[in-house]
Amino acid sequence: MSSHYDTIIIGAGPAGMAAAITLQKNGISNAVIDKSFFPRNKVCGGLVTCKTLETVIELTDTGATDLISDVFCDTDRIIELYFKNERLTCSEVDIPLYFVRREKFDFFLVKKYKENGGILFEGEKNYTVDFENKTITLGNGEIITFNYLLIADGALSPNAKKLGIKRKNTGFCIEAHIPKGDVSYPGGVKIFFGIVKKGYAWCFPSGNDICVGLGGVYKKSTDYKNILDGLLKQLGADTENTKYKGAFVPYGSSVDQSHCPDNVILLGDAAGFVDPIYGEGLYFAITSGIEAAGACITAVRSSYSINAVYYKKTEFIVKTIKKGNRLKKIFFSHPVGFLFKRRIKNKDFFVRFYCDRQISKYGYDYSRMIKLYSDYRKEKRLLKQ
User: What tens digit of pLDDT does each residue of 237-292 get?
Assistant: First the structure.
């Protein structure tokens, strides 16, 4: 038994489903393959910024009110920055931050796709890909043929490895969910610097729980569980019965896709598309999925190469990551860390300005941080008048 689809997507996370839904809307035949059954849980702090929310609304044709009430688990406007256990700032931002549990959020995208006739092969752990002959053999022996292949199977993408693609930097995250009633938690988003090298820790509201975790550039010698234990104890949590989940994530650079065949592209975590400064991956995942679908649509309707079109469509993501990575190397260096502590302390308005303008909206190119600071100073002076 065999079947043919114009495009096959490997991976039913946000990147893969964004591609599938976009192709579906444009009448391009496609199917999705994933090793898991849905709903399934996934390690993720769950932060959703305004730019991500707007992208999901447009992708799924779901109203903001319905999306926030039915799919998202929490929202908050209070941002607190810490250096270890010392609180540096506490700001109320104008643009709220939203939070999701990936089990529910990813399932929402899967249902949207399947409700409109989308085909998802779940629980496929033993499929094989023949890149040369453009075929995939599923675990039950069924053969699927394709014209284009979109790979969205995560940071440790086995299919990227088969193509000889090497990842320069790998990050690691570990987190736990604690019932709000079990700790002294007045609310708010808490970010902790100085706890893990070249990274940060967080405490996010997550429905009836709080999500406490940390992440940064992966080092085998680092005892991440012990560090997270210390943070949880600082928050007053009982760590003896706490369950932890960890995962590798891309962190710092996108991958070189020049080894890909002409009809194959990588997206989301598989492509290394994560902001290197604050680690947000959902925005780039969904955006790269939409752009990957756009590249397929262009290729189907013209003679353009899918790789060339995709490169142009995602050039802004690659440049943002490169510039952010250079800034990250400075920001997370040891001397700058202590300077940051001194300079940011009690700068509540700057944190509010940065969150609203940069984190929520990407209002500035990472090479224009001087411009951001200049605009902050101008706005601050205006408020004093």
Answer: 888 888 999 999 988 789 999 889 999 999 999 999 999 888 899 999 999 999 99
CATH of the domain at 264: 3.50.50.60
Residue 36 pLDDT > 70: yes
Q: What is the average pLDDT value for the chain, to the nearest integer?
A: 91
Is the pTM higher than 0.85? The answer reads yes
Are 278 and 358 in contact, with CB atoms under 8 Å apart?
no
Number of domains in the chain: 3
Backbone torsion region of residue 77, taken as left when φ is above 0, otherwise alpha when ψ lies between -120 and 50, otherwise beta: alpha
d(CA 343, CA 346) in angstroms, rounded, equals: 8
User: Within a domain: residue 212?
Assistant: yes
Helices of type H across 216-368 = 224-234, 282-301, 306-313, 315-331, 334-344, 348-354
- Placement of tokens 């693609």 in the chain: 165
**DSSP secondary-structure letter at 364?**
S
Q: Do residues 375 and 316 share a domain?
A: no
Measured CA to CA, the distance from residue 330 to residue 328 in angstroms comes to: 5
Closest CA to 263 of 326, 323, 306, 207: 306
User: In terms of domains, do 233 and 261 share one?
Assistant: no
CB contact at 8 A, 246 and 174: yes
Length of the chain: 385
Residue reference for tokens 């979109």: 150
Residues 7 and 124 in one domain: yes
Contact status, residue 319 vs residue 366, Cβ threshold 8 Å: no
Residues 208 and 158 in one domain: no
What number of helices (H) and strands (E) belong to the chain?
A: 12, 15
Print the SS3 string covering 37-49: CCCCCCCCCCEEC
Q: What is the pLDDT of residue 168?
A: 75
DSSP track, 172-193: EEEEEEEEGGGS-----EEEEE
